[in-house]
Amino acid sequence: MAGSRPAYPSSPRSGVKRLTAEVDCLVMAAQLLDPRIMNASLRHLLLPFLAILLLAGCSTIATYDKIAYDKATGAKAEALMLMDNATGSYAAHAKEVEAVKLTIAKAFEYDRGRSRNAETVAMWELLRAPDGNLFGGFLRRWREKGSFKPDAIAIKKPDIEQAFDEIIALEIGKPNPKKD
Amino acid sequence: MNFDNILKDVLGKSKDLGKTLFKQLAKQAAEDANDFLKKSKESLKRAAVLLAEGKIDRDDFEDLVRGKRDLAAMRALRQAGLAKAAIDTFINGVLNLFIDAVFAAIP
User: How far does B69 lie from chain A, in Å, by closest CA?
Assistant: First the structure.
C-alpha cells in the first residue's frame, strides 16, 4: 500500500545532519543516566522526560496543512456536484468526470508527498479506488451502467460526502503549530 | 533550583493532561462508533425499501452495503490519525509544562 511508503526524500545532507543531531542527543541522554552523574531516584524521575524529549524529535503525524484542507474540501464539492449529473449518460459527462478525477488525483498526490501522513493517504486510496465502493467505485459503475436512477444517487451521496468528511476531519484534527 | 521537585511537579501535571486528552479521545471514538452504526442502519433500511419498490437495483444495494465497510475503514483510519495527533499534543504539552516549571523556579 502506498500509505506506508516514505515521503519524498529531502536532501541527503539534511538527512545526515538530522541523524547526527539525534545521535548526539542520545549520547547526551545516556551520559546523563550514568549512575556516577545522577542518583537512582532522580534517574527514575527523569526517564519519562527523556523519553518525551526523544519522541518530540519525531512527531507521529503530519501537522495541519491549509493547502491539503482546501484541496480536500474543493474535491468534495466537485465530486458531489458531479454525482448529481449521474442520472444523465456517462458519455455526455465524460469530460467532467475526468476533470473531477484530476482534482482528486492532485489532492491525493499532494498528501502523498507529505511525511507522516499514512492515514490520509490510505483514506484517499479507499475513496478513489475504482474497484472499491466509494467515489472511485461510483464512477466505474456509472461508466458500466450508463446512468443511475435518482434514488440510487440519493442513497449513495451521503456516504461519499461522509468519506470526504473523514479526510477533512482528520486534517482539521492534526496538530496546528500556529494555533496550539 | 530544586530539579527533583520540578520533575515531580511536571510529572503530576502531565498525568492530569494525559487523562484529560485521552479520555476525550476515547469518548469521541465511542460516540463516533454509535453515530456510524445508527446512520448505517437508517441508510440500509431505506435502501431495502427502495430495492423492494424497484427504485434501485440489486447492484446499487450491494454497492451501498459494501460502501459501508469502506466507510468504516475510513473512520478507523481517522481515529488512528487523531490518536497520533493526541500523542503529539500530549508530548508538546508536557514539554511546555517542563519549560514553564523551570522558568518558574528561577528566582
Answer: 9
Contacts of B50 in chain A (CB under 8 A): 151, 155
**Dist CA A134 CA A68 (whole Å):** 20
pLDDT tens, residue by residue, A96-119: 999 999 999 999 999 999 999 999
Over residues A57-91, the pLDDT tens digits come to 568 899 999 999 999 999 999 999 999 999 999 99
Give the gap in angstroms from C-alpha B93 to the nearest C-alpha of chain A. Answer: 10
Q: How far apart are CA B32 and CA A154, in angstroms?
A: 23
What ipTM does this complex have?
0.86
Question: A60, B87 in Cβ contact below 8 A?
Answer: yes
pTM confidence score: 0.79
Test B59 with A175 for CB contact under 8 angstroms: no
